[in-house]
């Protein structure tokens, strides 16, 4: 199994426009340059793309993403969905076949609202084609399975994902954009090989875990290694990494893990 962290920042990206100087963010460290949250997972030879924000095109170029077999939308917020038009290129690489797009009610409706021209079985011209599908509790794909669970994120829930590779039995947890990890999610995530969690900042937030909450959730899950994503510009990679417990790390754009 391979995971490519395409983007590890917040909805505004890091640094933000007119980045405040008082945050003391070391912009000489490329690990502090964070694009919108997105991840690419390879199970066997099957390529799964999770979310596509406004930076998606350059994320694919920078991280050598040349194939997408399955797309999963965790939820319909702008930083996770607005780059989906760039899936057109992957449709052409599939001889025009529609890309299966899995999500839940709120997210799939946002796709219909934003990309009505793409809801088709076959790509036409230079447009993408999406085959919208409800994400089941367990999605079987070539190379393994993907389990999903609901995570609280403000006024609605998002999809939390657990990838299981058939050939190795390795498990990857991807829980982005969430305020907590409920008991059901803890159950399917427990003891995973790699755990990826939302950790926005040190201060409290209404719909995201802060670093303290993410550490607590990570300890409950008990993964072999835990990585944080969705960090805002208040998190400096080197400075704040030094305060994390053993086994916990801040991810960065371009990080690749082989599990």
Describe the structure.
There is one protein chain. The chain is α/β, with parallel strands linked by helices. It has 7 helices and 14 strands. The strands form 2 sheets. The chain has a 7-stranded mixed beta sheet. Strands 7-8-9-10-11-12-13 form a 7-stranded mixed beta sheet. A hairpin with a 2-residue loop joins strand 7 (138-141) and strand 8. The model has no long low-confidence stretch (mean pLDDT 96).
Task: Give the helices and strands, then pairings.
Layout: E1 2-7, E2 38-43, E3 46-50, H1 56-62, E4 70-72, H2 78-81, H3 88-93, E5 99-103, H4 105-114, E6 130-134, E7 138-141, E8 144-153, E9 156-165, E10 171-175, H5 183-189, E11 194-198, H6 211-221, E12 225-229, H7 237-241, E13 248-250, E14 256-258
Parallel strand pairs: 3-4, 4-5, 5-6, 10-11, 11-12, 12-13
Antiparallel strand pairs: 1-2, 1-14, 2-3, 7-8, 8-9, 9-10
Concise structural overview:
With 259 residues, this protein is an alpha/beta fold. Helix content is 19%, strand content 29%. It contains seven helices and 14 strands.
């Amino acid at each position: 199994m391979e995971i490519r962290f395409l983007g590890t920042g917040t909805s505004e990206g890091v640094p933000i426009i007119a980045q405040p100087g008082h945050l003391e963010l070391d912009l000489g460290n490329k690990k502090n340059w964070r694009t919108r949250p997105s991840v690419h997972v390879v199970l066997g030879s099957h390529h799964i793309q999770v979310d596509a924000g406004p930076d998606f095109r350059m994320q694919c170029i920078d991280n050598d993403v040349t194939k997408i077999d399955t797309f999963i939308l965790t939820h319909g917020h702008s930083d996770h969905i607005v780059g989906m038009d760039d899936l057109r290129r992957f449709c052409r690489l599939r001889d025009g076949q529609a890309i299966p797009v899995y999500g839940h009610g709120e997210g799939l409706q946002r796709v219909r609202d934003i990309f009505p021209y793409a809801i088709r079985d076959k790509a036409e011209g230079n447009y993408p084609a999406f085959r919208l599908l409800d994400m089941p509790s367990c999605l079987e794909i070539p190379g393994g399975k993907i389990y999903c669970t609901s995570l609280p994120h403000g006024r609605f829930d998002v999809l939390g994902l657990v990838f299981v590779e058939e050939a190795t039995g390795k498990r990857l947890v991807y829980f982005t954009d969430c305020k907590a990890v409920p008991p059901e999610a803890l159950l399917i995530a427990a003891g995973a090989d790699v755990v990826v969690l939302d950790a926005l900042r040190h201060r409290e937030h209404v719909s995201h875990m802060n670093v303290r909450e993410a550490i607590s959730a990570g300890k409950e899950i008990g993964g072999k290694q835990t990585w944080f994503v969705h960090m805002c510009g208040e998190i400096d990679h080197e400075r704040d990494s030094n305060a994390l417990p053993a086994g916990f790390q801040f991810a960065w754009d371009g990080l690749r893990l082989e599990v």
